[in-house]
Amino acid sequence: MRQATRMCVWMFCAASLSLCVLSVAHAERIKDLATVAGVRNNQLVGYGVVVGLDGTGDQTTQAPFTTQSLINMLGNMGVTIPPGTSLQLKNVAAVMVTMQLPPFAQPGQQFDINVSSMANAKSLKGGTLLMTPLKGADGQVYAVAQGSIIVGGAGGQAGGASVTVNHLSAGRVPAGAIVERAVPMQVGQEDTLTYELGTSDFGTAQRVADVINQANAAGTAWPLDGRRIQVRAPATAYERVAFLGRIENLEVTPLAGAARVIVNSRTGSVVMNQAVTLQECAVAHGNLSVSVSANPQVSQPNALSGGQTTVVENGTVDIKQGGGGLVRFQAGANLAEVVKALNSVGANPLDLINILQAMKAAGALRADLEVI
User: Fold this and answer.
1) Which pTM value belongs to this model?
2) Same domain, residue pair 236 and 365
3) Which residues pair with 269 in a beta bridge?
4) In whole angstroms, what is the distance from residue 270 CA to residue 365 CA?
5) How many domains does the chain have?
6) Do the beta carbons of residue 51 and residue 58 sit within 8 Å?
7) Is 228 a member of any domain?
């Protein structure tokens, strides 16, 4: 009897410990939760020409701007092409070049670029991007791009058949852009700066401010709203950089976000976070399938009747509906129980989307349903 009692106590302690471990939220660094206001990437774009393609370039009859671009480029290099000359170029393609200019990028630094065909080129594999200026939203040139394009795909064709693996009309040039102008970027005001949370949450904003105040003097940080936290920082650049280095590595346990279910109606994907719960309800779902088939038959006239042979199609429409008995859903207090209940219906992802929408309308789904 005493041994049985000890065993029960041990099992109770183990279960309690498991619940405690599961209830502990994971702490994250401030740099993973928030960013400093004003410190961001800048998008650059440019129009360029790719040469050296193996007969897979633009068809100039359908993309006249490719020929015009090449003529203008050759003119800048001192090569004059007589007016009215018809150029049949199969190794040249017009492309758009894009890149993300990271914060604090300085002249001379190199970054990767993306190159995408804008006409009817079959492939950019083996091509070389000629010097292309990359401009920002203000129209100023901030970088210059050039280099050999890497395309992560392959293709071939013969005898009217073709095979293509991955995408051939877009590629990447590693370290293909050189920064020519730095973007002025000010970190905060004279004595303060602002952290912006990636997801708006009043409780998390307060926790971030509390952690910063605990690591520094009281009143160093205070939340402005559910997204912004104002921080008092040193005035000199050296002290401010060291201060930010300490702040961004502080760990904060964020509060759980709002319960949300994301539904992609195009792909049938359904994603839900850990805060989703279900109320007790009953669901009946039956699959409906419609099959339409055509059976062509030849109608042959009698001999010497003067009639013509015709083809008659006999159509058949078949409708089938699967069984859809009521399934009782128990109230789910956590994500694992919700997944188990939804799997019990046996519906495919597209059917599951309709079930979730009906549950939301009935008030049984305790989550925000977002369809993208």
Assistant:
1) 0.69
2) no
3) 264
4) 14
5) 3
6) no
7) yes
